[in-house]
Amino acid sequence: MDAWPACAVPDLPGRGEPLRLFDTAAQAVRATAPGGTATLYVCGITPYDATHLGHAGTYLAFDLVQRMWRDAGHEVHYVQNVTDVDDPLLDRAARTGENWMSLAEREIQLFRDDMTALRVLPPDEYVGVVEAVPEITESIERLLEEGNAYRLDDDVYFPVSAAPGFGTESNYDRDTMLALFGERGGDPDRPGKQDSLDSLLWRGRRPGEPYWDTGIGAGRPGWHIECSVIALNRLGMDFDVQGGGSDLIFPHHEHSAAHAEALTGTTPFAGHYVHAGMIGLDGEKMSKSRGNLVLVSKLRAAGVDPMAVRLALLDGHYRADREWTGGRLPAAEARLHRWRAAAALPAAPTSDKLLAEVRRSLADDLDTPSALAAIDRWAAGALDAPATEGDPAAPGAVAKLVDGLLGVAL
Ligand code: 5CA
Ligand code: ZN
């Protein structure tokens, strides 16, 4: 399906540093080692409600990953999915009496508009699960043929015993895995499974639910195999970064990796597993199911500058769980105002050191708080100095670096 329009990313003088990111599997910050083309898969939305600031924070983190790679001279191949058929979407459609496909279509369009407004770089391939059903089905058939899947009633399961590396992506112990599996869409207590942690690859047709008639039978794919196959068929194994929010560490990313490893007989699925922290409101994770949301579209409709929303999200480190509070937006608006005023001066302190500083901060696991603080110091110096002194090229150069590396248009 179509993604959304890309904004131009200016080229900056010199070369950026190699990007280092925290890898959940290694539990350490490690250098990403992209070849000429860096490869990225980020889990997309389940389109049953509008984009909230939690989603925006996560997609922004991976937007910066791409900016850093490009600045370091790489091409980027970026794939994102849309979970456009799944239980929460079907439940919501059933409750409101809307057709599930129109609900998905409307929310996907709203997401595109929100991402465009926030200047988030689009994926090169934006793939809906519905359009990928044939390739996903083919992979499940292969797992069955090779003894890496088993049938239970009309459903098909993945046995965790088929993936020797199971558990090494999340690093969680079995009790934690069992608890999270139950909380996040798994069915640890279903009788007949070989292991409580085995996950659903194929859900046989249920009355009233959409289904596809396939070689496996009538039904629809399970969640983890969707991302596994969509990523694998476009990026191959050992692509550079698998991304999403930290709520996807287990079971989603663990099982996606396990499926791909069983499908190919090779390891690893991704070079880095990178997870953004959860953005909360009133002490709880912001989530569609809880309904404690601040929506990007609502902020836009209220006339809030999307660049201020972007800055408010970048003010915290992507990996930290963080609370959205009422003060964040006014603080970001004030910062944006100061940066714009400094960038509009006829001359300002030179920016070469600033470019190096911002590059260094972002290369270190996307340390945006340090990068923003460095730009604050430059802006304060520029606004304090007499307007005619300094380098006439500096204001424009800083606007360009803020655009290129942070995606903020001044
Ligand atoms: N469709 C699946 C992934 S295949 C899914 O998780 N969809 S989602 O709509 O629920 O979430 C989309 C992305 O936003 C995921 O990466 C998820 O981890 C992230 N996300 C959801 N809630 C928050 C939050 N409160 N803070 C930060 N990121 C969040
Ligand atoms: Zn996913």
Question: What is the total tally of β strands?
Answer: 15
Total of DSSP H or I helical runs spanning 4+ residues: 13
Question: In sequence order, what are the helices and strands, one letter per element?
Answer: EEEHEHHEHEEHEEEHEHEEEHHEHHHH
Bound molecules: 5'-O-(N-(L-cysteinyl)-sulfamoyl)adenosine, zinc ion
The 3D shape can be described as elongated
Rounded Rg: 22 Å
Low-confidence stretches: none
Q: How much strand content do the residues show? A: 15-25%
Task: Give the overall average pLDDT.
Answer: 96
The main sheet comes to: 5 strands, parallel
Provide the helix percentage.
40-55%
End-to-end Cα distance, whole Å, is 31 Å
| SSE class | alpha/beta
Q: Record the strand order, biggest sheet.
A: 5-4-3-11-12
